[in-house]
Specification:
Strand content: 25-35%
Mean pLDDT: 89
Oligomer: single chain
Helix content: 10-25%
Distance between the termini: 27 Å
CATH topology of the largest domain: 2,3-Dihydroxybiphenyl 1,2-Dioxygenase, domain 1
CATH superfamily of the largest domain: 2,3-Dihydroxybiphenyl 1,2-Dioxygenase, domain 1
CATH architecture of the largest domain: Roll
Number of domains: 2
């Protein structure tokens, strides 16, 4: 169902923006980040003709990697090997972004937690249970917080 734009007092009409197209993250170690998002979290990495033409050269040079989520959101990783966070402790937030959350079916949530533990991913907190569902918060190789969450079970 298409949402019809609604007029606001200023700016774009509500409903003009359709969806988030992509999120871009700077990463220190491209190999570690590709392994994390591709092998541990199971996102599909774009290769060959799947790579946008504007990024083909950077992907070929190993400076960019692109992943796609099942709902079509693109996650771009930009290699910045000299970029250091202000604090080595990932619990000291260093960006205005708080976390990136992925939805999972409730019957797969516990398995996802075991995969994170098996791969020695640093867990910030969780699993937690709330009226809105269950979640676990953890860090990617660059200290950016990621969440896997599911809706509550009936």
């Amino acid at each position: 169902m298409a949402v019809q734009p609604t007029q606001t007092n200023q700016g774009l009409n509500i409903g003009t923006l359709k969806r988030v197209h992509h999120i871009a993250l700077n990463v220190k170690n491209m190999t570690a980040s590709r392994h994390f998002y591709g092998n541990i979290l199971g996102l599909h990495e774009l290769t060959g003709d799947e790579v946008p033409s504007t990024l083909k050269e950077l992907v070929a040079q190993g400076k960019v990697a692109n992943f796609i989520t099942p709902d079509g959101l693109i996650l771009d990783l930009f290699g910045e090997p000299d970029l250091l966070p202000p604090n080595d402790d990932p619990k000291q937030q260093f960006t205005r972004a708080n976390h990136l959350a992925f939805h999972i079916d409730a019957d797969l949530f516990d398995h996802a937690v075991e995969v994170l533990k098996k791969n020695q991913v640093i867990i910030d907190h969780g699993p937690v249970s709330r009226p809105t569902g269950r979640g676990i918060y953890f860090y990617d190789p660059d200290g950016f917080m990621v969440e896997i969450r599911c809706d509550p079970t009936s």
